[in-house]
Write a structure and sequence with these properties.
The structure holds two protein chains of two kinds.
Chain A (H helix, E strand, L loop, with lengths): L1 E7 L2 H4 L6 H16 L3 E6 L7 E6 L2 E6 L9 E8 L3 H10 L9 E7 L12 H20 L2
Antiparallel strand pairs in A: 1-5, 1-6, 2-5, 3-4
Chain B lengths: L1 E7 L2 H4 L6 H16 L3 E6 L7 E5 L6 E4 L9 E8 L3 H9 L10 E7 L7 H35 L1
Antiparallel strand pairs in B: 1-5, 1-6, 2-5, 3-4
The chains are: A alpha+beta, B alpha+beta.
Chain lengths: 146, 156
């Protein structure tokens, strides 16, 4: 199964503070272990919300709101995508993660993906076929980058 | 530049209710347009937070695990895309064209640029390059290992 492991934002991440060279190195080693274990599918960091925007959909109206966004707990600072046998395996790896935000309280959130099997009759044959094409396209994209 | 386009959760998405047929079809068409425009790098949906967990890190304390669901819906991600765009404005224009992700409810889509290697400055660049090379090597080793394993399996 695939999971997204979300690194929630903190005050420091929102301030654009860079991790120390040691923290960077520790995270780098962890990522290498994830790759060797065949778990790492993707991983990246997002710039602070001051560089972001939101679009609100409300009763057919679309409104653009500029960052920064003050509710830090709502924000994503980074993420991984992992291939794991179970959520428990993901938890074991998450427990081994170097402190994502040294000096601050922080949280990793582990969320399983929807897979094709989860969709029943909502998916017509046509939409299913399109989804399959999309998956194939994205896989090809991901492979070509490696 | 790459951006993550985050579809924030809503009350309905958190119930695990699957999107209606029409929305799935519209999203499929939108994804096709993103592919044709050379923008789509990735995209997917996450199950409700009742299927999720959190790990809390606190200085000097043990790591703790908290089971979902998580009640602050505004904190939650329901789905995401990753797009390759020329600018944030281009991303905004494409989000405007997106089908309403949560029909019948208020919803928000958040656009956030990625950190790229250039952002880390000269002092990190050599470390970063070495790190990327080690990741590459790791991937190549894994690929070779898997190829070997398949060969052995095929012989059985």
């Amino acid at each position: 199964m695939r999971v997204m492991v979300i690194v929630k934002a903190t005050r420091n991440s929102e301030a654009g503070k860079m991790p120390s060279a040691q923290a960077f190195a520790d995270m780098g080693m962890f990522n290498e272990e994830l790759v060797k274990a065949g778990i790492m599918l993707a991983g990246d960091g997002l710039k602070p919300s001051s560089k972001g925007k939101r679009l609100r959909f409300s009763s057919g109206k679309k409104t653009v709101i500029d960052g920064p966004f003050t509710e830090t707990k709502e924000l994503v600072a980074g993420f991984w995508i992992w291939q794991v046998k179970s959520i428990d395996e993901a938890l074991e790896w998450a427990r081994r993660c170097p402190d994502p935000m040294p000096g601050e309280d922080s949280e990793l959130e582990i969320r399983p993906f929807y897979e094709m099997e989860d969709f029943g009759p909502e998916l017509t044959a046509e939409v299913r076929a399109k989804e399959a094409e999309l998956r194939a396209y994205l896989e090809a994209q991901a492979k070509s980058k490696k | 530049m790459r951006v993550m386009v985050i579809v924030k959760a809503s009350k309905t998405s958190e119930t695990g209710k699957l999107p209606p047929k029409e929305l799935l079809a519209e999203m499929g068409k939108f994804n096709e347009e993103l592919i044709k425009a050379g923008i789509l790098l990735d995209g997917d949906g996450l199950k409700p937070s009742s299927k999720g967990k959190r790990v809390r890190f606190s200085p000097g304390k043990r790591r703790t695990v908290i089971d979902g669901p998580f009640t602050e819906t505004k904190e939650l991600v329901a789905g995401y895309w990753i797009w390759q765009v020329k600018s944030l404005d281009e991303a905004v224009e494409w989000v405007r064209r997106s089908p309403d992700p949560m029909p019948g409810e208020e919803s928000e889509i958040e656009i956030r640029p990625f950190y790229e290697p250039e952002d880390f400055g000269a002092e990190y660049a050599p470390d970063f390059k070495a790190y990327e090379e080690r990741l590459e090597k790791g991937r190549a080793e894994l690929k070779a290992f898997r190829a070997e394993a398949e060969k052995l399996n095929a012989k059985k």
